[in-house]
Amino acid sequence: MKQAESSRNIFLLVMVAALGYFVDIYDLLLFLIVKNKSLMDLGVSAEQLTNTSLTLVNWQMAGLLIGGIIWGILGDKKGRLYVLFGSILMYSLANLANGAIQDISWYAPLRFIAGVGLAGELGAGITLISETMSKENRGYGSMVVAGVGLMGAVAAYFVGASFDWRVAYYVGGGLGLLLLVLRIGVIESGMFAKIKTHEVRKGDFLMLFTNKARFKKYLFSILIAVPVWFVVGILVNIASDFAKPLGIQEPIESGKGIMFTYVGIALGDFLTGFLSQVFKTRKKVVFAFLTFTYAGILFFLLSDGLSANAFYALCVYFGLATGYWVVFVTMASEQFGTNLRATVTTTVPNFVRGSLILVSSLFTYFRAELGIINAALLAGTLTVIIAYWALWQLDETYGKDLDYVETSGGTGL
Hints:
By secondary structure, the protein is an all-alpha fold. It is built from 18 helices and 2 strands. The two termini are 32 Å apart.
């Protein structure tokens, strides 16, 4: 009876986390898909579309970075469920409000609030799964969460393309609120419950920087996934800029490219999660798919005259190759003790997203000096080399016992 109840609780937890991430990704990418329609409807001129949309993306990115820290700390201080449902509530209300705006001045604050909310869901969900499922099977739980969740990008594309932009925002907000009903029966992490009343520093973000070994482990956990956002944020997002120098004659839709990329990522998450369980290794799987990612970067930037359909097929490949995202987040969660685990698991993916600011700045600088193709080759190669180096420094975490805490001086049991 107890085993059946435990299995039901785990199933419910995985489903809530997976559906939460589905809505998370839907909302995260929706703006990229409906930005032109919504901004023009609100009176932004064609000449100002690019600058205005970039400004709003930066507001959302700032919300993600700040929200990652806030929700991570709260996850270790207040509990994983507190963050899981608090973040869903915040971004759902922000998107409902976004659909109702009549003035462009409200767009930026609501994108910031939505960004803060979007920062918390994945980290809380993966932390809960890592601490609730057995050390042998937790990779399967993370695999389902990321694989199902990333299909939210597909939903965002079709809803954004088929309906008015306001309806698309209402759909995202409504789905989030409906999801909160499923919170009934989801249990808190037993590992967190065990340390909740203990006199141990919980959610102390500064602890990640006061110990050299812990800081390096944190930094390396971020760096291994930077190539993912180089591919999504530069190669796919501004693919139309690459079209002419690469001899692509047909028009390229960035929204469609992003959708196909995320289809690939969803498939890649299932595949990498499965392979990490079968071969009992996280590091080797990440190494292999990082290599596939670099091969795709080189193929695209050295190609000549791809058709639009060939480019979209390549986007699926890009997604498959960068689909080590689920394993990367799981590795980050498994690197640290219970009192810092939510802080790390929530901040790391958001800092990777935020790394796009630095990578795009580097790319822009190289572009002015070397041209768009050579700039992308150089920036992409640097991110991959750094990711290889960071991965080499990290310990293998498959099957690691996570029932321990971090002490002020280092790692304690």
